[in-house]
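Researcher: I'd like a structural prediction for the single chain below. Treat it as a standalone chain; there are no partners to consider.
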Amino acid sequence: MEIMKAVLGLEDGQFVHGEGFGVEGECAGELVFNTQMTGYMESLTDPSYFGQILMFTFPLIGNYGVDIKNFQNEKICALGAITKEICEKPAAQPSIRSFFEEHNLLGMTGVDTRALTISTRVHGTMRAALVVGSDDSDYAISLARKTPQITDIIPIPEVSCKAPYHIPGNGKRIAVIDLGIKKNMITSLMKRSGDLYIFPYNVTSDQIMACKPHALFVSNGPGDPKQATDAIRCVRELLGKLPIFGICMGNQVSALALGANTYKLKFGHRGANQPVRFKDGRIFITTQNHGFAVDAETLPEGSKVTYTNVNDGTIEGFENEDLCLTTVQFHPEAHGGPRDTEAHFFDGLFGRIA
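Model: Treating it as a single chain, here is the predicted structure.
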């Protein structure tokens, strides 16, 4: 098999060469790292990675093949994949290599991903360009520097549903704002017999209320939460009228709707081993994927922080009992621990709906 050239260029002038897999081509966006040991296909299909190049810190990717049943979206959402090594003889087929080739995807292997991760932790998340089929480092660096900042793009319309749809259930009626919702979120709501009305990112509050929901759920999504202007306005108009719950970007959108502020993290939280402390002192191991956080100092009176990140003290969730608003920054549906936070959040969600 002929080795395909590949190069990753960063905006600060760094570059690394490796072996390309998939097809020849190029992509450019933020380079972010994920620390998970498994779940590589869940990550690659997570709409929150739309517009980003995903680098895996775990050395071997692809050992159990491509498990389509666990896709979080029908297609790959990350721009490209950077790995130390891909498994050529996985336990199940198709392999990562054959899947990338068949679906015209971009990847590079043979990279010291740990060194690149350390660099990202020191310098912060950087724009990058992956070029497969060439080793022209100057071109890759130039392409990275021309790429817009994540705060200057609006990726949510690309991953949100195009029209409202209904998933029948015999329980509480939940209106969902889809900012790039993961399949597992819908599954967790359906498991509890949720009667789901799922709306695009630009839904209005009148459209939400027309389905006479018992509660509103705001999903995860890619990019800067401040760009989710339609969702922010919709949540603001419904505060106090409905119980509102949010996950990931839904947490940030809810905070912005209250008048609080969000900010970009240096390198974000992405992986399945992020410890958070609940208000009662319990520690949960959680799955996370975000590059922005809520500024605790700007939350209005009546809002209380419920979860904090053990590593850096950032907000991982808050509530406002007067407005019946509850949010988390992590992904309880992703089973970061022994399915602990799924029941903790979703059972609590349905338990608080009148």
